Amino acid sequence: MTTHYLVLSALLFAIGGAGVLVRRNAIVVFMCVELMLNACNLAFVTFARQHGNLDGQLIAFFVMVVAAAEVVIGLAIIVMIFRTRRSASVDDANLLKY
Amino acid sequence: MNGTIQAPTIEYALLSPMLIVFGAAIIGVLVEAFAPRYLRKSIHVPLTLLALVGAFITTILTALNGLPDKAAAMGAVAVDGPSLFIWGIILVLAFISVLLINDDEQFVAQASAVPGSTDEEEAVRSGFAQTEVYPLALFAVGGMLLFPASNDLLVMFVALEVMSLPLYLLCGLARRRRLLSQEASVKYFLLGAFSSAFFLYGMALVYGYAGSIELKAIADSLSTVTGQDTLLYIGTAMLGVGLLFKIGAAPFQAWKPDVYQGAPTAITALMASTVLVAAFGALLRVFWVALGGLEWNWQPVMWGVAILTMIVGAVLAITQTDIKRMLAYSSVAHGGFLLTGVIAIGTFAQNTQALSAILFYLAAYGFTTVGAFAVVTMVRDAGGEAGHLSRWAGLGKRSPVLAAIFAFFLLAFAGIPLTSGFFGKYAVFAAAVSGGALPLVIVGVVSSAIAAFFYVRVIVLMFFSEPAADGPTIATPTLGTSAVVALAAAATVVLGIFPQPVLDLADQAASALFIR
């Protein structure tokens, strides 16, 4: 029965990945990355159930903490560039190239 | 299993290098919170340097005391020969980079002030400094120590984040050209978070396959679990994406030039030298220890990645007009050369040779990189560092010593005999040849030749063209910067002329291979 959860997790991961690639707003891009991390959590918990051990559930907690730390850093950086440029669009940040 | 919970055993002595670095980082945060502003820097600098020296000494003591035969902290952290050698390199390089970080007013006065605003002027006038740089650098170094030593994937993921998160912030703190710096920070952050999501999903799939995240259990499961190969293959690929991103291997190299150019040069020096070392340690551990039994499956892909990385790095470096971007692409190419060593997995003797070659290469490359970026900090224009290559024309006539040292570093990158780069490259390619990867070595030698072209082009530009009338000024080096350049140049010479002691040390570190 766990297959459904794995399919859902793969779907969430794919939606997140596609979002990172197509969305322009840095905050939305970042939310999509968080969605990918949550897809990983779902996969971990599902596999923990499948294998009958607790490793996967434990990892999910670690991932949540890491994701929270990442939000702190990420929002700080995005707010910093928004205040400078008045825009959080990743297309506007185009000074560094070639 | 009778209801009592066994307390875990933690080998504090073995872990002490990391504990010292993290401890000092936490003290640094407290200093930031409680010490008055004018005192902070004078506390941070000695604290940071002492912590790095202390960690280095404990690393050496651990090595002298003999190595344990199993992983520390309930199998989570493997303190073995390669780990200790990598720790030693990272700590020395971090020490040198901190001298560079300390030296220069490269960092923003107040990161929260909008560039060009009155707030910023006010902050600059009051002589503010963002001294959080030091604890952040220590946290990053702590993560780098843990990353290559982690013996299960969860520890590796946490270490990856502990290493990366401070670096994302540090990239955005340049005092001049803040827009570039902030842009580098955003790009590094978004792409880094994207790639660690891939690492994590790969970890989930491998866990689903093996039922455990310990590297040894994964290795054991390769021969026992059947019918789940799809999970394993996709998981391996995704783990590979996460790790190769950190190395900056093609096709995941896009962030490297942008971040290296935008970040404050002292931070670029820290990143360019140490992250590569840590990431190769982790890559080797995942692909040799956990997935060594799967070599027939991942080797062909890694061949492709290595070839692409070497060629992309060497060819794109030719087209660059900015010195930091050029060094970034050169670092991509060097990542490719190192990958040829990773592919040369095989028999026990073969593994030892390849591992020792990689360790030596990392040490040699790290020193040269820090030195090269230290020179870059000294060539300045009105608006900060003179990054554009045309500004470097005729530098040899203005400042012969500096230009000669830089030329020497470039020759070491190119791998000319009598420099450390030559022995590094020779060792890695020799290991690859005996591992049966001759075509790879041929591509490596060809791209080394292409790379030599753009290194020599810079040397020609510096010595054989007329300096522009309004050319860049050479900042009088402070004690720290001169020490960095001198140390890096000395290391490049010594490793190039008397490589034997370090080669022996690398051999010795590699002889036990990774513990499982």
Automatic annotation (TrEMBL), chain A:
Q: Where in the cell is it found?
A: Cell membrane; Membrane
Signal peptide span: none
Q: Which GO terms describe its cellular component?
A: NADH dehydrogenase complex; plasma membrane
Listed under catalytic activity are: a quinone + NADH + 5 H(+)(in) = a quinol + NAD(+) + 4 H(+)(out)
Can you name one GO molecular function term for this protein?
NADH dehydrogenase (quinone) (non-electrogenic) activity
Q: What is its main location?
A: membrane
Coiled-coil ranges (or none): none
Kindly list the biological process annotations in GO that this record carries.
ATP synthesis coupled electron transport
User: What membrane topology does this protein have?
Assistant: Multi-pass membrane protein
Query: EC number(s)?
Result: 7.1.1.-
InterPro entries for the chain: NADH_UbQ_OxRdtase_chain4L/K, NUOK/Mnh_C1-like
* Transmembrane regions listed in the UniProt entry: 6-22, 27-47, 59-82
Identify one Pfam family in the record.
Oxidored_q2
Work out whether the entry's keyword set contains Transport.
yes
Keyword annotations for this protein, in alphabetical order, are: Cell membrane, Membrane, NAD, Quinone, Translocase, Transmembrane, Transmembrane helix, Transport
- Tell me the protein family, please: Belongs to the complex I subunit 4L family.
HAMAP family from the entry? NDH1_NuoK
Relate the protein's function as given in its record: NDH-1 shuttles electrons from NADH, via FMN and iron-sulfur (Fe-S) centers, to quinones in the respiratory chain. The immediate electron acceptor for the enzyme in this species is believed to be a menaquinone. Couples the redox reaction to proton translocation (for every two electrons transferred, four hydrogen ions are translocated across the cytoplasmic membrane), and thus conserves the redox energy in a proton gradient.
NCBIfam families the UniProt entry points to: PRK05715.1-2, PRK05715.1-3, PRK05715.1-5
Give the protein's recorded name: NADH-quinone oxidoreductase subunit K
- Source species, please? Streptosporangium minutum
Q: What is the lineage of its organism?
A: Bacteria, Bacillati, Actinomycetota, Actinomycetes, Streptosporangiales
Annotated gene:
nuoK
UniProtKB/TrEMBL annotation, chain B:
Identify its membrane topology class: Multi-pass membrane protein
Q: Which GO terms describe its cellular component?
A: endomembrane system; plasma membrane
Q: What is its EC number?
A: 7.1.1.-
Q: A Pfam family for this UniProt protein? A: Proton_antipo_M
UniProt keyword Protease present: no
Report quaternary structure and partners. Answer: NDH-1 is composed of 14 different subunits. Subunits NuoA, H, J, K, L, M, N constitute the membrane sector of the complex.
* NCBIfam families assigned to the protein according to its UniProt record, in alphabetical order: NDH_I_N, PRK05777.1-4
Q: What is this protein called?
A: NADH-quinone oxidoreductase subunit N
